[in-house]
Amino acid sequence: MQLRIFLGECKDIPESSVLQWFRFLQRFFASLFKQQQNVEVQILVLLLPLRPRQGGAERWRRTRLWIPAATLFCFCNRVQPNLCSGSPLSSDNGWSSPDLLRFVTSTTIRIRTLGDLISAGEMSFQVFLLFFLCSLPKILAQDPPVHETIVVKGASTIAETDDNFVCATLDWWPSEKCNYDQCPWGQSSVLNLDLHHPFLTKAIRAFNTLRIRVGGSLQDQVVYDVGDLGFPCHPFRKMVDGLFGFSKGCLGMDRWDELNLLFNKTGVIVTFGLNALYGRHKIRKGVWGGAWNSSNAHSFIKYTVSKGYRVDSWEFGNELSGSGIGASVGAEQYGKDLISLKAILSDLYKGSRQHPLLLAPGGFFDQQWYTQLLQVSGSNVVDVMTHHIYNLGAGVDPHLMSKILDPHYLSRISKAFKDLQFTIQRHGPWSSAWVGESGGAYNSGGRLVSNTFVNSFWYLDQLAMASKYGTKVYCRQSLIGGNYGLLNVTTFIPNPDYYSALLWHRLMGKGVLSIDFSGSPFLRPYAHCSKGKEGITLLLINLSNSTKFHITVRNGMNIKLHEGEANHGEDSFMENFKKSVTWIGKKASDGAVQRQEYHLTPKDGNLRSRTMVLNGNPLKLTEDGTIPALDPVLVDVNLPTSLAPLSIAFVTLPNFEAPACA
């Protein structure tokens, strides 16, 4: 029997890859069907090179390959209709795995289809060939695995984070906050969030201790209904000439009591942002002057202390530094006001076991302004210098995804981390750096980007990069609200970044370790001491859409990476195929020493999916809102880690010798 298959319009696949694939088919089926002498398949391939000939005409080349076996092979979603007549494979729109499954298992398979080429009793081969066919698009779309070696230096740390590095924000935006014809905030404001929703409570408790920063753009328009306020306490309302288009808003003490009830029962570590514009006046558009009136803040802090509410840190102002966002205050006056606030805190907390930190300025880093603030306020006034990051640009930017997946773009923000680290070391060594707010894309984030799997490439890379440059805390905008919330604004169901944050919080310890790596820029490796246990934990990010990395980890204390050793090149095509096949149900290695791996991928391979998949299992809440178990797979520590294209992995190595982590 001869089967003639025509394959054409293969514009998207390099010619060399097609030829390499068919050479493999020749060897594979020759071995598989060496006892069947009368079955042949003739494949006529029409290859269209990407380069045109002179005169603009495109050149076709015909290649004939003979395979002594029986197979049905559809390539580039184009098959001669008379070949697969009556089957789903004949559709010009290609085929899907469910269609193919029904086709293969059908009892009415006619001539020239898969069933006629195989004897009736060889169902096992049919099943094998089914999976073989279904794997072809994925296999052909990927480059051969690339071996990379990273060397972790565990003798000493290069930086240390706070115990509670992961932080999330609660914002003041009311439901009327809209951008780009979207109003994504709903009922997520500090003033109207459903604090009794069981999903909210369980999402926070899963962290055991989650830092929450209360603040945001409207922070400097919030007044506190305590003491002699002098006017009624009303929520924010739309106001054309108001800052950010809103009036002042009021926090009642009954609402503050409710918030603290939630914080206390869920173990929240509270950072609260104070109004730093109170009492000032507008000099001109965007510029405010005059001294800060501390009376309202003083009454509010006094009430908080009297109730025994635990506030770990007070932050002064929001985005008033440098040229400001909406409003700005000069660094000299800001520094003087911080001295006043420090005195208030010292007085109100006198004799208390609590000693809250003072944070400022909660704005975008401006080196000259930050330097002057430290010089004016002096030593031991500002405990933490906070800055904000929205390095992806506007939420409406159609190029958000391409920015997130561009390793060179992601690395640009490192300059801000380095410059702030230098500024603190030189002008305020008593202080430390926090990212007080970061949502990636500003104006409420990017719809179908900031709340989907693809954003975790940016988010986890940010956490790792920030910690490497001495950042103690990183506050994600937001816990809930906008497009960038860790929780869905209406259902409270976690978005993918929630699980990324939770895994970091549980696995990555305080100690940041140095890595030697000179391989592909699309592989971004980071290392920390493991949290609460011996050994180290790696964060591995694969930004490539086609390359699988096989990663070997070595200890910088024991070996020296020789030139050229980091990249061993590519496997043979046969090895590539063998390593691409996953046998479901196979047990983990029985080796004595195992590591834990947590592989993160999107559901159905869709980067815009709102469902995170951990080690092949979609992460879903239970019916009562309980966070699912985040269980690793156990792998023989002597095997390389395999990192699929466009995926992320945490890898814990419990027996890795790292004196810095002891």
Notes on the structure:
Its main location: membrane. Endoglycosidase which is a cell surface and extracellular matrix-degrading enzyme. Cleaves heparan sulfate proteoglycans (HSPGs) into heparan sulfate side chains and core proteoglycans. One of its GO terms (cellular component) is extracellular region. The chain has 662 residues and is α/β, with parallel strands linked by helices. The protein folds into three domains: 2-141, no CATH class; 145-155 and 520-661, Golgi alpha-mannosidase II (Immunoglobulin-like); 160-507, Alpha-Beta Barrel (TIM Barrel). The chain has 14 helices and 30 strands. The strands form six sheets. Strands 4, 5, 20, 21, 22, 23, 24, 25, 26, 27, 28, 29 and 30 form a 13-stranded mixed β-sheet that branches. Strands 6-7-10-13-14-15-17-19 form an eight-stranded parallel beta barrel, surrounded by four helices. The longest helix is centred in the first third of the chain and has 19 residues, at 123-141. The protein is globular and about 70 Å long.
Assign the CATH topology of the largest domain: TIM Barrel
pLDDT < 50 stretches: 1-16, 32-131, 561-591
Please report the total strand number as a whole number.
30
Main sheet overview: 13 strands, mixed
Mean pLDDT: 83
Instruction: Give the CATH H-level superfamily of the largest domain.
Output: Glycosidases
- The helicity comes to 25-40%
Pfam family, one: Glyco_hydro_79n
Family: Belongs to the glycosyl hydrolase 79 family.
Keywords: Glycoprotein, Hydrolase, Lysosome, Membrane, Secreted, Signal
Function: Endoglycosidase which is a cell surface and extracellular matrix-degrading enzyme. Cleaves heparan sulfate proteoglycans (HSPGs) into heparan sulfate side chains and core proteoglycans.
